[in-house]
Specification:
Keywords: Membrane, Transmembrane, Transmembrane helix. This protein folds into two domains: 48 residues; 141 residues, MucB/RseB, C-terminal domain (Phosphorylase Kinase, domain 1). It is of the alpha+beta class and 218 residues long.
Length: 218
């Protein structure tokens, strides 16, 4: 007995069996749709893997307050090595942490023929204050140190009287001399200048006062 051939399945959308051409087109469309889904899935997986890697890197980076790793300049020892080379002792303020120096040098053979001892300071508020001690300096040298600005008054700190130069509201480019104290003692002209606030200038002037008084300042 000859086996019966199974009739082709009726496709619901068509209401009849598919033709061979329709079957081939349907299979090709299904294959294309499958490849597209695989491509999209691969992109999603790659994106998730990338995001995960970024998160791991971010979590691995140490956190905390940025630290200034530059080593402070030992101005005390630099001054000790140079002591005796000038007519007055080099001034060395004793300042607490976190005050630190970023420069210190005895400047000789200068174009203005005035030797000077210089200390650059970084304040706890991240501002700048410089100390310059000129030896046997004249008024012209002092004027140049304060950008030829005018005295605004005087102040006395721990027994030392300072001329005050306040250029903060001048509207001019004053370089590093937004504010300055100037006094004289022995054969020294001492300038404390910079861009810090009044309390930090007061701290430096107070730290210098005992040594200035020893030089004969008042």
């Amino acid at each position: 007995m000859t086996p019966r051939t199974k009739p082709p399945a009726v496709v619901a959308e068509l209401g009849r069996p598919e033709t061979p051409e329709e079957t081939a087109a349907r299979k090709a469309e299904n294959s294309a749709n499958h490849r597209n889904r695989q491509t999209v899935n691969n992109l999603v997986f790659s994106l998730l893997a990338t995001v995960g890697l970024v998160i791991i890197i971010v979590l691995a980076v140490p956190r905390g307050t940025p630290v200034d790793v530059s080593a402070p300049v030992p101005y005390q020892s630099i001054a000790a090595e140079a002591q005796g080379s000038e007519p007055d002792r080099l001034l060395v303020p004793d300042l607490p942490s976190p005050w630190k120096s970023n420069n210190a040098e005895l400047r000789t053979k200068t174009p203005d023929n005035v030797d000077s001892w210089y200390i650059g300071l970084l304040t706890p508020k991240k501002q700048f204050i410089g100390i310059t001690q000129g030896f046997d300096a004249n008024d012209t040298w002092v004027a140049s140190q304060v950008n030829k600005t005018m005295i605004k008054g005087t102040t006395t700190i721990d027994g030392v009287t300072w001329d005050v130069y306040d250029n903060r509201d001048s509207g001019n480019d004053n370089g590093n001399v937004d504010f300055a104290y100037v006094t004289h003692a022995g054969k020294s002209s001492i300038i404390v200048f910079g861009s810090a606030e009044n309390d930090e200038f007061h701290t430096v002037a107070s730290a210098l006062a005992p040594q200035i008084r020893q030089l004969g300042g008042s």
